[in-house]
Amino acid sequence: MATAPRRRRPLRLASREAIWAYVFLLVPLAFFLGLRLWPAVQSFLLSLQTWHVNPDMRNFVGLQYYREMLNTPRLHQALGNTLLYTLISVPTQLVIGLVMALLLTSVERFRGLFRAIFFAPYITPGVAVAWVWGWMYNVNNGIFNAFIIQLDDWAAALGLTWLSFEIQPFLQSPRQALVSVAAVVIWQGLGFQVVIFLAGLLGIPRSFYEAARIDGANAWQVFWSITLPLLNPVLLFSIVISTIASLQLFDQVININFTDQGGPLGSTLTVAVYMYLEAFERARLGYAAAVTVLLFVIILVITLIQIRFLNRRVEY
Amino acid sequence: MKKVAGLILGLVLFVGAASAQTTITYWQYEFQTRMDAMDQLIEMFEAENPDIRVEHETFAYDAYPARVATALAAGDGPDVVQLFYGWLPAWAPAGYVEPLPAEHFDADEIAANFAPLVDAAMHQGQYYGLPTAVRSLALFYNLDKLNAAGFDGPPVTWDEFIEMAQAMTHRDGQRLTEIGFGVSPAGQDHHVLRTVLTRQMGTEPYNEDYTEVLYDNEAGLAAFEFYTGLITEHEVGVIEFVQGNNGYRDGFRLLENIAMIIDGSFAIGDVERLAEFNWGVTELPVFEEGGVQSNYASFFMNGLSPNAFADEATLEASSRFLKFVTSDEAQLLWMEIVGELPASRTLIADPALAEDPVYGPFIRAFEYATSEVFFDEGGQRDVMLDAINKVVLSGVDPATAWSEAAAEDQAFLDAAER
Fold it and tell me: What does the pLDDT average to over A78-87?
């Protein structure tokens, strides 16, 4: 015989909803903790040990791998390259993406079609993109050099003797290879930027523009005083996301020069590719884990700086 | 009711029978002829051993080591696993493969039955696996192209090689349309440079116990300058003329825009299957007729992963399978389908094989071939690759690039766990 339960004061509707929201959030939280955070902790622990498939056979080496990173020129080269990729691809994607999105806002017909076409590269697998671009860059059989030769032929046909075009080594040149890969990354990420910017631009109330026009603002003033400030949250999002993607660059690099991954002479090597090669070509997962920790810290710091300095709330 | 009881009884019997069978997993990388050969071998093995079932799984070559590492760490993956002998110094300390168990494999017997180069399947004095086949290098040539260029047959000396390769290299304005030699530093050429050309020029690349790099001398530099000269001076080929891991081979057998390549015997089956022209194979050229010959011999071996040691039945089944796929019978079938040469001492000494127009050049090469010991196969390959790239792509002085390579290579030898 159970005693009658004590009557509790019923919760307010809002509180009840919040509790249920928490309950439902627990599921993805458990998922996130188990599949994201726990492996991250594991990989930190791994960075302090020598690698063996059997955990009992791993030896604790403390910060040895972190010290090794200080004295490894190849890693420093990879870090420099990664930074360079980011400095080239993020601003370029942002500027071109914004210009394209602005142009798209001024057309109504076929806007969806344009958007879909620009977005297509983004959803194409990086591996396939890298392979196709690798072929296009091929010195003797690629389409880019075919185009250069065509230009040269036209110049000759027009009698422009002072003008000549020479075929380029692209991926086969330690000087051009990084920029060539960065071009692929930019081409691929551009559609994403366009879509994000377009959504941001269309979210800015028309009334601001109308008011500005009535006050006699020119297009440039409108852009600087209305569009750009109100686009700030979208811009910040774009910058942070594309910076992280760029710092983790892997697919395009490892697949575009299959016989000399990260080459020639390490000129396209990124931290992520370096880490992969150390982990699986050399079976040095302990050291590779230390490199992932370093990459994590770098991404964290850069992202925090970006959020700190670029986040400006603007309200009108 | 009776029906249900019968069904249950049937099910119980079925499960009982199934559990008496041991299932083991075999892993290798994707390569059509190798997969075909292994499928046939598994079929034969299962017919002889009805109590064992073998699952055959393959992965793209580049993803293969990563798959092995992650699967084994998760307690999953293969029982019997294929690996390049050069990976052993990395794989053994990581625990991807275990020494062959003494109760199933006798070291003296292995040494007696297999060709001497199979010693390279040892790490710190213990065998970690056995090969089904061994490979050496030879020059593949497109006979139609040679004839069209006015030559009756393949080159014997490097001078002839250069002359023929130049005659078969064609340009259209700024671009090359066909090349005489399928340059591939990352393919087999880094072996050609390190193991073949150095010795032909008169220097051992390493000392006997592989503690010292010896090629940083005049002869070594001459070898290096000869190789890079093929690209920079004689212009008989360029790096990555055809894109991709097997680009040089694709250019030879499929696109027919590469006239000659240096490749391993593993390519025989593939070329036979795809080439629609008259082709041949010949021993690697020498600097003068009757001069020093040299070659690089290597092999993929089959080893036992820690999974194979999970219980008695699995170890028994895995060991039996490993013995079968490295038996004489399996070696002959492998040769027929893949083109790789048998690893057994007696089979490889078969005089009929040495006379074979295709296998012959590879077989004869074993008499003067070396299986270089690697401590970091990828790293030591990159040393050669970078040295070549420095000269060919960045215009660095060969002597500088070669000395730097020797120093980097020496660092790998110094860091090796022996």
Answer: 97
What is the model's pLDDT at position A250?
95
In this structure, is residue A149 part of a structural domain?
Answer: yes
Q: Do residues B130 and B107 lie in contact, with contact meaning Cβ atoms separated by under 8 Å?
A: no
Provide the pLDDT confidence category of residue A1 given band limits of 50, 70 and 90: very low
Query: Do B409 and B260 lie in a common domain?
Result: yes
B342 neighbors B117 (Cβ within 8 angstroms): no
Q: Are B214 and B220 in contact (CB under 8 A)?
A: yes
Closest CA–CA distance from residue B352 to any residue of chain A (Å):
37
Q: Residue B88 is part of a domain; what is its CATH number?
A: 3.40.190.10
Q: Rounded to 5 degrees, what are φ and ψ at B242? A: -115, 135
Average pLDDT of span B41-64: 95
Whether A48 is covered by a domain: the verdict is no
- Same domain for B382 and B307: no
Are B268 and B391 members of one domain?
yes
Instruction: ipTM value, please give it.
Output: 0.88
B254: which chain A residues are within 8 Å (Cβ-Cβ)?
Answer: none
CA distance A312 to A294: 29
Same domain, B158 and B267: yes
Domain residues for the domain of B203 are: 137-297+375-415
Contacts of A176 (CB under 8 A, 6+ apart): A168, A169, A170
Taking residues A271-295, report their average pLDDT: 94
> Is the distance from CB of B264 to CB of B215 less than 8 angstroms?
no
CB neighbourhood size of A67 (10 A):
12
CA dihedral B222, B227, B233, B234 (to 10 degrees): 120
Rounded CA separation B40/B26 (Å) = 13
Q: Is the Cα torsion angle A97, A103, A104, A110 positive or negative in sign?
A: negative
Residue A120 lies in a domain: yes
Residue A39 domain-assigned? Answer: no
Least confident of A149-158, B13-22, B44-53, B69-78: B13-22
Q: Rounded to a whole number, what is the distance in Å from the CA of B295 to chain A's nearest CA?
A: 22
Distance CA B343, CA B325 (A): 11
Q: Are residues B153 and B277 in the same domain?
A: yes
Total count of domains within chain A? 1
Pairing of strands B22-29, B279-282: unpaired
Which residue in chain B is spatially nearest to A56 when comparing CA positions? B95
Report the alpha-carbon distance of residue A166 to residue A171 in Å, rounded: 15
What phi, psi does B262 have (nearest 5°)?
A: -100, 120
CB contact under 8 A, B389 and A263: yes
Residues of A in Cβ contact (< 8 Å) with B177 = 140
Which two structure tokens, joined as six digits, stand for A139?
A: 């010195």
Residues B228 and B195 in one domain: yes
Range of the domain at A170: 67-310
Q: Are B362 and B380 contained in the same domain?
A: no
| Residue B267 shares a structural domain with residue B175 | yes
Identify whether B144 is part of a domain: yes
Name the most confidently modeled range: B241-245, B316-320, B337-341: B316-320
Determine the distance in angstroms separating the CA of A126 from the nearest CA of chain B, rounded to an integer: 16
- In chain B, which residues have their Cβ closer than 8 Å to the Cβ of A140? 175-177, 238, 241
B244: nearest CA in chain A?
A258
